[in-house]
Design a protein that fits this description.
By secondary structure, the protein is of the alpha/beta class. It is built from seven helices and seven strands. It has one domain: HUPs (Rossmann fold). Helix 1 packs parallel to helix 2. The structure holds iron/sulfur cluster.
């Protein structure tokens, strides 16, 4: 992890969790420095079945490597509204920025509700995520809400590889696409060796 802010050690931070594989490393890395609570909030996920799988995996992670967790629900209509008209955008494009912003805004709102002074996310573990965009959006939402955003690039220092290893050791469910219906791929799944040696599958978990 590369930390890109000067928020003091021990600060309470609400950490947005997109999926258990990213959290398997991201939560550990942030917990070394901050007093963290996880926040699973993902109205972008395309079906209830997939939502339940990713939430179940996050609960499995919490059982195996305990941390406080808050589960956020709702927001599906808001997600459809922000994504409308951008269905054909490539990943890392404008739709993804709107999707990240929606989730960061709710994480900041929840942090304020819980009386926490800071928020962050594990999204930057994935090599498929634009860390600069995630950090800019987080910073903007932090400025908007008055809650500080923990800027970091969690993939630095082999963060992604560590997440692949940790989630494999814990037997966590690993999804094959980012989350929304526009991100679904028809590629066959890659094996674990290809995932680790190639730096992540083409549709790596976010
Ligand atoms: S590809 Fe991922 S980040 Fe982009 S809009 Fe879909 S779910 Fe959100």
């Amino acid at each position: 992890m590369k930390l890109l802010c000067d928020i003091p050690s021990g600060t309470e931070v609400l950490v947005h969790i997109c999926c258990a594989p990213d959290a398997s490393y991201g939560i550990r890395a942030l917990r070394d420095r901050f007093d963290i609570t996880g926040f699973f909030y993902n109205p972008n996920i395309d079906s209830r079945e997939e939502f339940r799988k990713r939430l179940r995996a996050t609960l499995d992670l919490r059982e195996k490597d305990p941390f406080s967790l808050v589960v956020g629900t709702g927001g599906e209509d808001a997600w459809e509204n922000v994504a409308r008209g951008m269905e054909g955008e490539p990943e890392r494009g404008r739709r993804c920025e709107a999707c990240v912003r929606l989730r960061m805004r709710e994480t900041a709102r929840k942090a304020a509700e819980l009386g926490m002074p800071a928020f962050g996310t594990v999204l930057t573990v994935s090599p498929k995520k634009d860390a600069a965009m995630v950090n800019r959006v987080g910073r903007e939402e932090g400025d908007r809400s008055g809650i500080r955003f923990v800027e970091a690039d969690l993939k630095k220092g082999d963060g992604y590889l560590k997440s692949v290893r940790a989630s494999k050791e814990m037997g966590l469910y690993r999804q094959r696409y980012c989350g929304c219906r526009h991100s679904m791929r028809k590629d066959p799944p890659l094996g674990p060796v290809e995932q680790t040696e190639q730096g992540g599958p083409p549709n790596a978990p976010r």
